[in-house]
Here is the input.
Amino acid sequence: MQIGIIGLGRMGMNMARRLIKAKHEVVVFNRTLEKVAVMVKEGAVGASSLEEFKKKLSGPRIVWLMLPTGQPLEEHIKALSSLLDKGDMIIDGGNSYFKDDLRHAEELKGKGIRYMDAGVSGGIWGLELGYCTMAGGEAADFKKIEPILKDLAPQNGYLHCGPVGAGHYVKMVHNGIEYGLMQAYGEGFELLQASPYKPDPAAVAALWNQGSVIRSWLLELAAEAFKENKDLAGVSGFVEDSGEGRWAVQQAVECGVAAPVMTLSLYQRFLSRQKDVFSNRVLAALRNKFGGHAVVADGNTRRTTAAGAGGIESAKAQPGVQPARSNKK
Here is the structure.
């Protein structure tokens, strides 16, 4: 089967490789043409422009986009909407918001261009293990691309989730769950590290994957990470988010669904990127004001004046010395 892939990042390039290996004819385009040249050497048909990309695909064309959500995706869909013919199909396989799928489908419908969305999970391991794929769109369109999905995914690893938007909706919930699982593992291993026993985290992760109720692929990856770097030395605690966790929390609010674990996991990622969080400084200042508790500034422990109105003193506080308090309420 013939398919065109636009976007040769970590996921797109390996998806193209997997499809080539399965004997599909894959036409590729990427703004960085060096990546196109790499794929041509591996059996793909390369294109140096969108116009050439279209010419190398036979109609009705199937175009799979693996692009960052936002401007890159919007620009390509707009260009393709003017370039493709009636009956051609665009599949957005990136990490897109399901409400954007509804808009894109409606915009393309007026030009007779088919549209599907595909939530894809598998990361850098997808080339070897396959990509779990969650598809949204009309049933007839799903049947048309099913041979591609079957070869992209592991056994039983793809599903028609419903009409347009359903694929990315299911992937959004998938990522919200992923946030919660990762947060729970992170907190658990920190608790182990703080214990008086300090068991080998790699050994514990490997153990828990042998029949325990919390075994998972994420735990297998944790075991590998700890095996390579037991204390995770040199690894920053800065944790990004791709957007789907935010959308999951927003959707929970819209649906009136309580999702405290997803929400707190998302907020924890926000906190991971901040240094000396202002809200914590407010807490420290309030404790100082109502209880005379020590605060830390510029690396030194300091206290307010006895009257509580003179701000923070410059002298380092003496251990065990409490400031005088007024008896006034």
